From TrEMBL:
InterPro entries linked: Aldolase_TIM, GH, Glycosyl_hydrolases_36
A GO molecular function held by the record: galactinol-sucrose galactosyltransferase activity
Reaction(s) this enzyme catalyzes, per UniProt: alpha-D-galactosyl-(1->3)-1D-myo-inositol + sucrose = raffinose + myo-inositol
Keywords in alphabetical order: Carbohydrate metabolism
Protein name: galactinol--sucrose galactosyltransferase
Entry similarity comment: Belongs to the glycosyl hydrolases 36 family.
Spans annotated as Disordered: 250-273
PANTHER family the UniProt entry points to: GALACTINOL--SUCROSE GALACTOSYLTRANSFERASE 6-RELATED, PTHR31268
EC number: 2.4.1.82
Organism, as annotated: Nepenthes gracilis (Slender pitcher plant)
Primary enzyme class: transferase
Amino acid sequence: MTITPAVKIADRKVIVKDRTILTGVPDNVLVTSPSSSAGPPEGVFIGAQFNNEKSRHEVSLGTLRDVRFLACFRYKLWWMEHMTGDSGREIPLETQFLLVETKDGSHIESDVGDEANQIVYTVFLPLIEGPFRACLQGNAQDEMELCLESGDAATKAASFTHSLFIMAGTDPFTTITSAIRAVKLHLKTFRQQHEKKTPGIVDCFGWCTWDAFYKEVTQEGVEEGLASLSSGGTPPRFVIIDDGWQSVEGDPLNQDDHKNHHNQHHQQQQEEHLPRLTKIKENEKFQNKDNPGVGIRSIVDICKEKYGLKYVYVWHAMIGYWGGVRPGVGEMEKYRSSVKYPAVLKAVVENDPVFRDDSMVVQGVGLVDPRSVYKFYNDLHGYLAGSGIDGVKVDVQCILETLGGGLGGRVELTRQYHQALDASVARNFPDNGCIACMSQNTDSLYCSKQTAIVRASDDFFSKGPHVAHDPHRIGGLQQRVHW
């Protein structure tokens, strides 16, 4: 018996359950059915063939009109949000998830099961294929485009077969769930939330120090905050000591760097001396004045013994600190870090123009050699675990996509770092104590097998332009990864 696929390309059209979604599909767009282990025939993989090997390609997938869609796209390097529309030109740059609803059909018929007149939902999931990462975008001709890039000028390809997965169904929730499962079985690089150990903090009320102190957090401030919450009748059971506990220091830039990145705004950024990590252990603010050798365990003991907290987490960046690990500094030399300047994607800058002048872009970051990154994480996490710390909030994860030049590209670098992070967390934090933050690119989502909790949105801003322009963005939620 022949099973007709729910999604197919015929007569230069993408046809989903006998409804045309895209028209004018170019001849170099390829379709591949999933293997029997990767899911049912409701889905297909899409790729493309190009004439020349390049590190970046764009290809039209056809014209999209007269539908309704929901897109999840990156409005910043770090974060996603949603947008709705009804034509191809409205698909934002850096779209990483697209759900298309056909306008023909009936919600009532969908409920009672008359498939001939049901509304159809089609999920588009851009993937990683080899060293390339894919995303969707629209153009002025209402075409949906597939963008493929490696992030490394030397990492090139011309042929792609599994860069986009498309699946269709009459129930959007079931269709999305089935599509993610099919992609997981195909890629074999990530696990879904139900397959991971969920840390105990999700069942507790907790407090993160960031909004109260930002980087000025101190041991005394943490204790004052816990005392205030407890006296107010809301005693926390866990705390996240955010940015501000680590030993960091800026490094003076030489004249060549100053010339290469010279303009008024860049000079101002350079004068601020982007801090870099200089030690594994805590800074003086978290050392007991009477017994400095106790280190960060001092505040951990206060949290757990005096205030009854069950868990204490601390913050660190994926690259150590915002400015990375400072090269050539004492105990940090063994991690072989070197300053690399982020290569920011054009689409990211178009969505978030401010980032081109970010201090990380202007001054560079101290990137630990990928061959040494497991040792770095294990040394850091081993010290923390030995001091009673139960987990880490690992921030600034998406910066890796900008640092893949000369290292095999963005996907390869992200994969190496996540494998090292997963292994270190598994070894040092038995409760799977890890929260991912600023990590909402598909490089990270499709390369992580361990982390079960992801921070879902940007900071809460009670004042300033963020509220005026983005009222729907005011919730700084923490949530589980349901992939």
